Amino acid sequence: MAKCSLCDRDAVYCPRYEGRCYCREHFVKWFEGKVRKTIRKFSFFGKEEHIVVATSGGKDSLAALYFLHKLSRRVPGWKISALLIDEGIKGYRDEAIKDFLRVVERLGVDYKIVSFKEEIGYSLDELVQMGYERGLPYKPCTYCGVFRRYLLNKHARELGGTVLVTAHNLDDVVQTFLLDLYRGDVKKIPRLGPVTGVSSHPKFVRRVKLFYEVPEKEVTIYALLNDVYPSTFVECPYARFSPRWQIRSFINRMEELYPGSKYSLLKSLLALVDALKEKYRERPRTCKICGEPSSGEICRACQLKMELGILDVKL
Amino acid sequence: MKVRWRILGGAWKEEDWEEAPLEKIMLKLGLSPEEYIPSVNGKVVTPDYIPKEGDEITFVPVVSGG
Asked: For residue A15, what are the domain limits?
């Protein structure tokens, strides 16, 4: 079995793009060093922050919470909170909430759980059914993504958060990049930078992608080694409806054949974000219905509510 | 050589495996090393690990649940 390149213990991981191997202890040090480097490189945090971690109960967000909680012990000006959005997917989110509670209680982190049912009036399962009955062209991930982002921002702000951390990793980012390219959605590419909302709306909480430069595989190993990997693996019943599923397989196949492919995609993405950010700069606006930040006159959440027939307004 | 194995979230299976590195076995099982992490008797291992009689092997999915 492969040995650690830094000591003689059994390795747990050998990144092929690097040509080295790491044992459990050296993997954790190497991983945490990589994330700290990302934090410095993109100026994610200042010395005084209330960091709200968007936590789904999945491995990536629990790993993010664990890592930031550990790091915060060295930064006296940081407060860490966890925010979970329960969209209401029967048999899926219930399990994730148990894992979420196990980790926040173990770490002693303040947390808040917000549900679609309480805030939107319906669970995601109900919204998907309503959209289907009305003949709307959206996939489940559209409702989930729009309402989740809306609630994360609103509640991170209400918690007093100065920055909202999402656990998006390298794989998530390059998958979305390719999805945008396939859809011809070039103007969305600048949103794929490591930080969003820097100079935007006063109600918009600055958002950072913590694992921007870390492959999902490494986040998974970090979660396993630190006992924050969910107790069981439950796949979202809507996951396979998304074209992301096919893109993910394609990128993983390329990475197997050509190690380092994901980093090459990220390099191209960063160059494009830089080149396109002025051209497609979004002017921060306020939704004239709900008062939340929006890229148009009416925010996407209110638009979807109107299409679903659950928002009765006269404009 | 008898081993017990499963994909995390799935049922355990008991099978006779040839003596070969996990990466070769994963290939036969159709499991990409980019998408699954092997864990033997509760410890993460690299895919060049050669299973031993009685090992309990779990393949942990890298992909998120959703």
From this structure: 1-41
- Interface predicted TM-score (ipTM) of this complex, two decimals: 0.94
Is residue B63 within 8 Å of A248, Cβ to Cβ? yes
Mean pLDDT, residues A69-75: 96
Domain B2-61 of CATH type 3.10.20.30: yes
| Contact status of B19 with chain A (Cβ, < 8 Å) | no
Could B60 and A252 be called an inter-chain contact, meaning their C-beta atoms sit closer than 8 Å? Answer: no
The number of folded domains in chain A is 2
> Which residues in B lie closer than 8 A to residue A248 (C-beta atoms)?
63
Q: Across the interface, which of A12, A60, A225 has its CB nearest the CB of B46?
A: A12
Mean pLDDT to the nearest integer, A149-173: 96
**CB-CB under 8 Å, B66 with A239:** yes
Instruction: Give the integer Cα–Cα distance in Å for B40 and A159.
Output: 42
Q: Indicate whether A3 belongs to any domain.
A: yes
HEC-encoded secondary structure of A246-278? HHHHHHHHHHHHCCCHHHHHHHHHHHHHHHHCC
Going from N- to C-terminal start, the domains of chain B cover 2-61
pLDDT digits (tens, 9 = 90+) for A122-140: 999 999 999 999 999 998 8
> Does A16 share its domain with A54?
no
